[in-house]
Amino acid sequence: MEGDRARHDDADFAHRSVLRHEVLEAFEEVPAGLVLDATLGGAGHATALLGARSDLTLLGVDRDPDALAVAAVRMERFGDRVRLEHANFAQLGELLDRTDEPLVGALFDLGVSSPQIDRPERGFSYRFNGPLDMRMDPTQELTAEVVVNTYPIDRLTKILADGGDVPAARRVAAEIASRRPLTTTDDLVEATQAGTPAAVRRRGNPAKRVFQGIRMEVNDELESLVDALDQTIDRLVLGGRVAVLAYHSGEDRVVKDRFRRADRGACSCPSGLPCVCGSTPEGRLITRKPLFASDAEVADNPRAASVRMRVFEKGRRAS
User: Fold this and answer.
1) pLDDT of 114 above 90
2) Considering 197, 218, 239, which residue would you say is the last residue of a domain?
3) Which bin fits 289, alpha (ψ -120 to 50), beta or left (φ > 0)?
4) In whole angstroms, how large is the CA radius of gyration of the chain?
5) For a Cys-Cys bond, which of 13, 28, 213, 275 suits 160, CB 3.0-4.6 Å?
6) Distance spanning both ends of the chain, measured CA to CA
7) What is the rounded distance in angstroms from the CA atom of residue 14 to the CA atom of residue 17?
8) Does 206 sit behind a cis peptide bond, omega within 30 degrees of 0 on the bond before it?
9) What is the percent of the chain where pLDDT is above 70?
10) What is the pLDDT of residues 38-89, one digit of tens each?
11) Residue 62 and residue 31 share a domain
């Protein structure tokens, strides 16, 4: 029975890693040591990294216990080179402090995975009817149902605007509030359609952005990302790298700002002039501009269309 479940879950988590070649290239020159995969998912990037570098070990972290169960099976062949943890971004520093190995790399592949989206019972997708859940970690208390049914209109408007870039966010928030209680994803889609101006609806299904904004609130994705990047960069050894794959403009802004601050050392001097404020950079940007998926990869895997990848290296400065 357990074996049947493992095979079923493994099929459900069939997931193609985005920018696989670029991720391998980003960590090609890091020293030997420990790599953190902070969003392990189906372990596509993780297995590729361990396969390419026999001198690396891996700490794989995910909020979804189903993903961890599948990853454990897929990574069994690497034996004690792998340690898996059910945890969130706020716990990364604590987990890293438990190991004696030098942290030489960290990977963050943000957002929700395809297997999560494709399971109606998880409530992530506007395409399938299901409960208003959207929790990456099903053991946490806050759900999408709580957000849509209890948040004041002003707060709901803000999360739709900031997390989802939702046009007419206040109109949509007011429509959602007027229909309370909402219990299913179909309820939320109908409220979104009713609250969205016709001109906006003609540009595509507005529920996509609404679901994104609510999902990011449920899982505290933007705020927790700032802390996670700080904890990781602080613990990297010299020459270690952190790579982030972001699929949403808000996430990418967080990554861009944190990496630039690390690159400039919080320098307040005008751009293009020598630094005289005494700021100390933490390292250097490997990607001055984000990397994007090729047309061929997007054609093969549409999820790659919106990805932006940024890479930062600890402690080394360009000559």
Assistant:
1) no
2) 218
3) beta
4) 21
5) 213
6) 59
7) 10
8) no
9) 91
10) 999 999 999 999 999 999 999 999 999 999 999 999 999 999 999 999 999 9
11) yes
Residue for token pair 């790399």: 105
pTM of the complete model: 0.87
- Helix (H) or strand (E) holding 155, with range, is helix 153-164
Give the CATH number for residue 301: 3.40.50.150
Domain shared by 227 and 92, yes or no: yes
pLDDT band at 318 (very low <50, low <70, confident <90, very high): very low
CA angle centred on 115, ends 187 and 87, rounded to 5°: 95
- Look at residues 167, 199, 218 and tell me which one is the last residue of a structural domain: 218
Give the distance from CA 258 to its chain's centroid.
15
Q: How many domains does the chain have?
A: 2
Instruction: Give domain status of residue 124, yes or no.
Output: no
- Rounded CA gap, 308 and 291, in Å? 6
What is the token pair recorded at 41? 């998912």
Q: Are residues 7 and 111 in the same domain?
A: yes
**Separation between Cα atoms, residue 221 and residue 124, nearest integer Å:** 14
Residue 184: both structure tokens together: 């299913």
Say whether 111 sits in a helix, a strand or coil: coil
And the tokens for 95?
Answer: 């987990």
Phi, psi of 202 (to 5 degrees): -70, -15
Q: Where are the alpha helices (H) located in the chain, listed in sequence order?
A: 2-12, 20-26, 44-52, 65-74, 92-97, 114-117, 144-150, 153-164, 169-178, 185-195, 198-201, 207-218, 221-235, 249-264, 295-300
Residue carrying structure tokens 């520093």: 93
Residue 13 or 305, more confident:
305
Residue 151 lies in a domain: yes
Beta strands in the chain (DSSP E): 33-37, 56-62, 82-86, 103-109, 236-246, 283-285, 308-314
Whether 143 is in a domain gets the answer yes
Domain that holds residue 170: 138-218
Strands 56-62 and 33-37: parallel
Domain membership of residue 54 (yes or no) is yes
**Do residues 13 and 99 share a domain?**
yes
